[in-house]
Structure formats: structure tokens, C-alpha cells
Queue: 2 jobs
Job 1
Amino acid sequence: MTPHAHAFCSIVPPHLLEHLAHSSNPAVAAAARRTLIADASARTFRVLPLPGTAPTLAPTEAGRPHRTVYDCRQGTDLPGERVRAEGEEATADATVNRAYAGLGATFDLFMNVFGHDSIDGAGLPLHASVHYDENYGNAFWNGEQMVFGDGDDEIFLDFTLPVDVIGHELAHGFTQYSANLEYFSQSGALNESVSDVFGSLVKQYAHGQSAEQADWLIGEGLFHPNVQGTALRSMKAPGTAYDDDVLGKDPQPAHMDDYVRTGRDNGGVHINSGIPNHAFYLAATELGGNAWDRAGQIWYDVMTGGTLTPEARFSEFAAATVAAARARYGDGEEIQAVLKAWAAVGVPTD
């Protein structure tokens, strides 16, 4: 897949929204249907920049974030009205300020930990639009910017509340500019998993959490208190993030024995991502300390190493993590943790 053909990437999977669209609660069903329609429209009008075409920054600006937040005021025209730019004071709108801070937290992880200047490695300015559409229950990366809905206040709250949601969506940009994993089947599930991995690392880095202290949840705090669920996904225990009468049950598998074969959701990209997600969790917790130090470094090396094909399958990605672990750390505990993690989820590494 060429870079300009990359897919629309949202935090809430379509299967969950489709389930909500059939809810007996008219407000929930209407909001879900509206979100599905808005997502379909956003996919249609998506135009992506090619890698390497980011604006060239002056040398004095390198290594610093360049953030701009826009307000759609419940409309769908992007980017909306500019309401806060880099270095400007906080506004009276908490959503704007959270988006600004989340862009910064993501920039900080990539720059401070990996020496990667913004999500493209070349100082790409980070743009985000908030208050997108009415009761919009999603957040997405459209190849150029982040977009956040306010939620319906029935199932979803404001999508800027969990910082890992912001990190997740921006990490789709990181993938776009690095390995450019095709958004279908196993490569698509890897695309989603990489976003969960780096979204979780953004949260852990921002909160100063070790691998042991982290909750390994994606989107914790996004659900309305009445929902029987803790988050959209769990890397620690895929399939346990929610079990709710309205939402249904979290369908993610944690092992290849339970791999879901489906034509929906681009071949189950949001579902089967639970398998590589769990492998990262196992490797990170086996190594201990800060997950970004060794496990995160290995995953980063794979994404930026130039060895992955856009159509990479789980086994190819797993083998690449083993090679990356050996290249950086030799035949020590790092490579053993990686081998053990992939074996535990049933993915071969050779």
C-alpha cells in the first residue's frame, strides 16, 4: 500500500458503534448512527500528505512541539476555528486544553525517549480539532490531524479525557510515516496494536508509571459511569475491558487460537490487535521498570528499521522484534522476554 492510500483510523471500532446503533435507548442509537455516518464521510474526504513532505522547520525549532488546536463548534468542516497555538495561554475550554496537553505528551514521549522529532521524525506540526459534530462518539487520525468528538454523554464522554486516546491516534501518524502498515487483516491489526502500545506508553510516561504500576487499559475514563466497563481495550487481559448490556462484550482475543476471522472492520483490525497487544504487555512486564526503556525501544526499532513490509503478518512482526532485541541488546534477558511473550500468545518468531 502506498502512503497516500492509508486508511481512516478511529479509536472506537465500527463493530461497537454498529452494536450501539441497535440499542433500545433511542438517544444511544441515534448518536451511534450519526457517528457511523460521520465516519463514513470522513473516510470519503480523506487526503493524506506523503512522507517527507512535512514543512521544513528552522534549526532553532527542531526538537520542540508545534501544536495548534481548532474548534469545530459541533460542525464537521475541518479544521475549524483556531483557538490555541503553540506557546499560547490556556483557554477557558478544558477540552481545548486537554487536546493541547495530549499533543504535547505524545511529542514528549517520542522526542525525549526515542529522539524522534514529532510523529514523522522531522518536526511535523501537530494539529487537533475538538467539538467535532454533535454527540460524536469517536476520535480519529485522518492522515493530517487529530479529530475529537464530545461523546453522547450516554455511553461516551469527551474523547480528550484519556491521554492515551490522543497518543493512540497520533501513533497512527507515526506508523504512516514509518512502516506504513496496510490497514487490513493482520497488518491492520498490527497498525492498531502499535497505536495502543505507543498510546499506553504516552500515558505511562506522562504519569511516571512503571510497567508494573500501569493499568494497561486503552481509553480508561472514556465510558459514562453507568457503563459496565473500564476501557475500550485491555492489553493486560484482552477481552475483559467491558461487558455491558448496551455495549456488548469485549471481543478481543489474547491468543492465536482465538483469532477472529471476519470481513468486517477491515478484517478485524480492532479485534485481533489484542494478540500483539498482549505480547507487548508480557514482554514489558517481564522486563520490568519503565516499559518505554526496553520493550518500547524494541518496538520503536522495528517500526523505524525499514525491515517491515506494509503487508506484514504477526509472525513477521514478531521475528522483527526478536531481531531488533538482539541487535540492540544482544542475547540477554531482552530477547528472552520477547521470545517468551510471542510464544505465550501463540505467534511463531521464526
Job 2
Amino acid sequence: MPRADRPPSRRAFLDVAGVTVAAGLLAGGSGDSDRSERSDDPVPSASATPTPVAVTGRYQAGVTRPGSAQPHLLALVADLGATVTPGLLLAELGETILTLTAGSDPRLLGLPPGDVTVTVGVGPRLVRTAGATLPGAADLPPFSRERVASRERGGDLLIQICAGDALLLPVAAAALLDQAGDRIQERWRQFGRRGTEVPVAEDRTAPRNLLGFIDGIVGPHTTAEQERDLWLAGPDAVAGGTLAVLRRMEIDLTRFAALSVAEQEAVFGRRRASGVPLSGGSVDSAPGLNAKTPDGRYLVPVDAHVRRANPTVVGVGHMLRRSYSIDDPAPGLLFISFQNDLRTFTATLARMDASDALLPFTTTTASATFLILPGYDARRPLGSTLFG
């Protein structure tokens, strides 16, 4: 149940107050409280109400529901105290998510919940307490081109909050942290936003990333593909969950922007404007990795990102990839992938490490993997299949 009778923490208050003040300044507010009540001020028009996202079910919301991810995200990574019972904490967080998304939690401060989703995952240390061989029990190894502080590697708990309204992110986070109290200690958090959505198929869009290219074209999009590559089928404790990889990357925008458009396209292996592979076809066509020019050069360069990360060439399944542009602490991307086998990510990145034209423009500054818990409802609390 919500702990509304407890005074909000200083952190929670500052999170909410800071966003509220910033929103007022961005809107041109001067701080005059009586100005908003003047009858000659124009009344802002109401925007379309976002469609609420179903919270309960076999899977948690925030992975494939909604079908097109909301534009704003907050990822919060924390640790649990040594004496904390994970099952009880997760059950309380699940109840809080239900009240937040229903709009009945007073800690929303009157904001309509709209399409907000909250997705919860647990890190390898917690998974190992439930079973050393369970999916999600393995830590993510370090890779090249990393500059990751110890505080920003790993973690026990991931709380991913997505919404169409950016104001909901810190407000929902403050409510969840208030519910958890001193049982968790925050490691780091990252706000991100998705770029303009571009049609890539009849029923599917994908956003542009910070480098100007369409991101997330390839992935397990159909139900059959998701059952094969995304969702965990067993054992029962994790069935309906998935494995998430979270990576924050700084990007050398200045150096990338200095390249010609043709050079930028060679880095990715796609046309920047349309997303079409350099081998031709349509935006959702598979890259023709064997296609060559009359003089014998590959149309998709040997070190192009779409070639090095191609799942068929790597010999792994597809990842459901989400990239969010960030500008704090530095311009870059918050990369999140969902897959039912951690090797899907590790084998892909290992092959990219050997020769991928995109990687020299990136530096990873945070890295973690989490088991996204199976879905839940009022009778089956969040985390109960794993922790009882």
C-alpha cells in the first residue's frame, strides 16, 4: 500500500520540485502566482489523452507494450540492503506501480498517469540467491572502449519508467523510492528521449538517433519472433521475463559530424535519410551482405555496423533494441536491449569489438544486465515466481 502518511524524502521533494520549476521557466513563467489566474491570459488547449497501457499480464509493460515506445524514459539503478527481503520489496513496488498507473496514488501530485509504464528488473546477484543457474544469474563482462566507474557497473535493481509526459518520470520515481525507503540505495539514474519516429514498415515506426540515423529497424517484431528471441520460456520462476542489457555511451558528435554523408553512411551501412541498406531495397529489407559493385567492392562495407552486428552472421537471435538520446552527463545514447539469451548481446558486441566502424565514436560509461521479472497481477505479486 502507498506510504502516503510518511513525509516525502528530501530527494523525492527535490526531484519533483526541480522539474516543476524547470517546466515553469521553459514555459516562460516568471514565478508570479497571480498571472495564471488573469482572465485575459489564453487558456492552453488540451492535448490528446494518451492511451493507458495495460500493466498486468504474462509480461511486464514497458517492453512490447506499448507497441511504439513512449518518447521519454528514466532508468534508475539501485542496490538492495544486505538484510532486505527481495520478495517483499518487489511485491510492494508492484502494488505501487498499480496505484501509480491507475492514477489513485496521491504521490502523483494530481498528474494524470496517461501512458506511463514502470518495468522492474533484478541484477545477477539477486538472481543467484534464487538459483545460480537461472537466466540472469551471469554478470555482464567488461568490453573495450569502456570508462565505467565501479558505481556505474552492475546493480541489484532496475526501475525503467517510460511516458509520453516527461513530468511523470521523476514524480513516479520519487513515489517508488519513497515506497522502498532506506531498503535500497540509488547508484545512478539516466533520463533519455527518443527522436522523431519514422515509418519503417506498414505497422511499425522507429526513431532517429543522435547521429541522425534511424535506430532499431531490425528486431523481433512479430509474436513468433518474440517468443523465439525475446521472452524466457522457462524455468517457471522466470517464464515471461526477459534479459535486459543497459549501456550508457558518450558519442563524439563533433568528429562524426565532420565526416561526409557518404562516410557516415559507410559507418552504419544504411542511407542516412531513408534508412535503406546500402545494398538497396526498402528500409526494412535485410542488408545484402554479399552484394558487390562491378569492380568487386562490397556495397555494405566490411566494417559497417549493420554487417558486424548482423544476427545471422553472429549466429545469435535478434535483440529488441531501444536507444534514447541523452545530453547529460555528455551527449550520447542510453542503449537498452531485451533478449532471452545474454549471449545474443555479448557475442554481438565481441564481434563488433573486432572491427566495427561505429565503435570508435563511442565510449561506454555505464553497463549492467538485469532479469526483467515476469508479469504480475493482484493475485501474483511482482517477483513472487522468483522469490516467493
